[in-house]
Amino acid sequence: MFNPLPYQDGLLEQAPESNSLLPSFPSILFPDFCNESTVASSNDSATDGFTIDNLNKASWAVAKILEAEARIAQRAGLAKEFKSRIDTWLESASKQDEDSISYLSFLLEPYVKNETSKLHNSKTLSLPTGTASFRKLPDRLDITDPTVALSYCEAEHPEAVIVKKELDKSILKDLILKQAEPIPGIEAELGMDKLYVKPLKLQTPAIKEKDAA
Question: How many domains does the chain have?
Answer without folding.
Answer: 2
